[in-house]
Write a structure and sequence with these properties.
Helix 1 crosses helix 6 and helix 2 crosses helix 3. The strands form 2 sheets. A 6-stranded parallel β-sheet has the order 4-3-8-7-5-6, with helices on both faces. The protein has 12 helices and 8 strands. It holds the Pfam family Glyco_tran_WecG. InterPro entries: WecG_TagA_CpsF. This is Glycosyl transferase, WecB/TagA/CpsF family.
Length: about 260
Amino acid sequence: MKINILGVKIDKINQSEALKQIERWIWNPGKHYIVTPNLEFILAAQKDLEFKQILNKADLSIPDSSSLGFSYWLLKRKYWERLILWPLFFVPLKQLIQFDRVSGTDLMDALCKLSAEKGFVTGFLGGQGKVAKRCAECLQKKYPKLKIAFAESGGEINRNGNMTADCRLPTTVEDGSLKPVDLLFVAFGHIKQEKWIDNNLDKIPVRVAIGVGGAFDYLSASVPRAPKVLRKLGFEWLFRLMIQPWRLKRQLALLKYLWLLTRAG
């Protein structure tokens, strides 16, 4: 089931259901891509119509925010009710009126576990410096049977999802094409990674590509994750702000998001 939040389609799905669907795609012919929208994605999509289109035509749109269910609930209220109820966004009570969140980081970890069990080949592309290699090493240590074709940064990507002249993809020696994988994890940051996947999916040998944002940082332990209790209560954003104060400007965008929710027709 898909829902609509400010023009962005989100699948109402849990992690177990997502894993089963992705496994089916890998076993069968075809190519698919997955997006992991959170509130920043939805805000960006209000101005970037190309980005919105890419999100809406994805094969699977994972609800990667603890507040998307609350947002959907609030949008179903009358305008005057929204004006009264929006402060609930900041309290744990919202957990009573939301659907499951599927963390992109947790989904990536679960997909690597599944790949190790089923013999699927994975690829890691993106991140800063050598974080892709560190992430791959940590996951292979956790899941020794995990098959990894490559783990590379890929270099710089512009906002249109194009690689700059000095970028280099991990290629085969024979023909210079991207090494074939069943699952490709792409971590260029939101907007860039989704546009890169959209630009290149038909050209690369991959069954399923998924944009994973900062998951490489978390799974390589380069950046600490919020304790599970905070994640469950929907306050992971607050923990991230505490350890990364530079995110303040990004978090202030939540006020704009709430304004859009209350004003939506």
